[in-house]
Amino acid sequence: MIFSPTEFKTKLIAMAKEASNGDNHAATKPPPTPSPLRNSKFFQSNLRILVTGGAGFIGSHLVDKLMENEKNEVIVADNYFTGSKDNLKKWIGHPRFELIRHDVTEPLLVEVDQIYHLACPASPIFYKYNPVKTIKTNVIGTLNMLGLAKRVGARILLTSTSEVYGDPLVHPQEESYWGNVNPIGVRSCYDEGKRVAETLMFDYHRQHGIEIRIARIFNTYGPRMNIDDGRVVSNFIAQAIRGEPLTVQAPGTQTRSFCYVSDMVDGLIRLMQGENTGPINIGNPGEFTMTELAETVKELINPDVEISMVENTPDDPRQRKPNITKAKELLGWEPKIKLRDGLPLMEEDFRTRLGVPPKK
Ligand SMILES: NC(=O)c1ccc[n+]([C@@H]2O[C@H](COP(=O)([O-])OP(=O)(O)OC[C@H]3O[C@@H](n4cnc5c(N)ncnc54)[C@H](O)[C@@H]3O)[C@@H](O)[C@H]2O)c1
Ligand SMILES: O=c1ccn([C@@H]2O[C@H](COP(=O)(O)OP(=O)(O)O[C@H]3OC[C@@H](O)[C@H](O)[C@H]3O)[C@@H](O)[C@H]2O)c(=O)[nH]1
Known about the structure:
The structure is a single chain. This protein is of the alpha/beta class. It has a single domain (44-354), classed as NAD(P)-binding Rossmann-like Domain (Rossmann fold), CATH 3.40.50.720. The chain has helices spanning 5-19, 57-68, 124-129, 131-152, 188-208, 232-242, 261-273, 290-301, 325-331, 339-342, 347-354, and strands spanning 47-52, 72-78, 97-101, 114-117, 155-161, 212-217, 220-221, 246-249, 255-257, 259-260, 280-282, 287-289, 307-310. Strands 3-2-1-4-5-6-11 form a 7-stranded parallel beta sheet, sandwiched between helices. A two-stranded parallel sheet has the order 7-10. Strand 1 (47-52), helix 2 (57-68) and strand 2 form a beta-alpha-beta unit. It is globular, with a radius of gyration of 22 Å. It binds nicotinamide-adenine-dinucleotide (NAD) and uridine-5'-diphosphate-xylopyranose (UDX). Uridine-5'-diphosphate-xylopyranose binds next to helix 6 and strand 8. Its EC number is 4.1.1.35. Its cofactor is NAD(+). Residues 50-344 form the NAD(P)-binding domain. Pfam families: GDP_Man_Dehyd.
């Protein structure tokens, strides 16, 4: 068939439109219907929820909260790189709970209604340890979970990060800010990885109609953080309990905003259950320099420890504080726990794991 130049152009535009990311979902086929048993009157109408990375710090607290609802069945998929079965020991053997050793860089076949996709090392020490694996986890892992969401018609939530703003030139950071990221730096396996993961989420949403939710999480702390995983709060608490100097990385004037883990979990669940795709910042806007954080930990946990200044790592963001207007307006969410109240809630868990008895 021979087309005139005008016909050819019209055809090309039509093809481009079909393949575009617009509202046109021509390529979408509806997800398969679940087993007929799910609609039987004898079947308990549970929501089946997959939590990738559920053996980690935030993931295990999220699982605790989801399991409180008797209508939820929870499946955790984790490769235990930074997580541990210990974090989930109270649920192992529970009839509504399943734990799968699985690496998200491989496809996963399960039938679920919702996916909380957390799997990814989060502490800079761990994500820099094997950067190629970190970027594979972010890119291939997120592709696999989106493929799963598409196949079964599940809603999927990605835990992105404040690190997508890089070393921000806008302060506080709102979701419309595109960030200031070094694409070839030592942190880019993580921050660029998460940026691609966000892109994939939106492309699947636009192209295939997948229901997506994106949370941009700011520094979160609480019990079950890995001891010595390099993150500042867990480092300072462990150092204070051991009576070792608190290592402030120079210059100490860099800022972070710390959110207690129960507030974070509440925000993630509201985002999943709400109607907004995001991205939405979830974090506590209380902003502290690292020197202020060290002084607070010293005062609350062990007034006898010293504070020492040590060398920093490359590309450390100089300031970070979330604008949470969107979370307030769209999710009715704001954090409840102040840093001074949250830090002491970590002490007992850290003392138990470090084998250091409580102060007399
Ligand atoms: N904690 C924070 O301050 C923070 C801030 C921003 C974003 N986040 C995001 O929240 C999520 C959870 O963070 P966290 O602090 O609980 O970290 P974490 O390291 O405690 O948990 C991550 C979990 O993912 C698992 N995992 C890693 N790679 C995997 C893979 N390839 N396949 C399967 N499982 C894998 C780990 O074993 C671990 O259980 C991460 O996606 C992280 O990027 C966390
Ligand atoms: O012992 C330490 C460790 C860290 N720091 C400083 O504390 C600040 C925070 O460092 P952390 O390693 O806790 O965390 P970062 O803010 O760099 O990255 C974090 O941000 C967002 C998430 O996605 C990541 O999971 C998380 O690790 C940095 O300025 C770092 O230089 C110290 O002063 N002393």
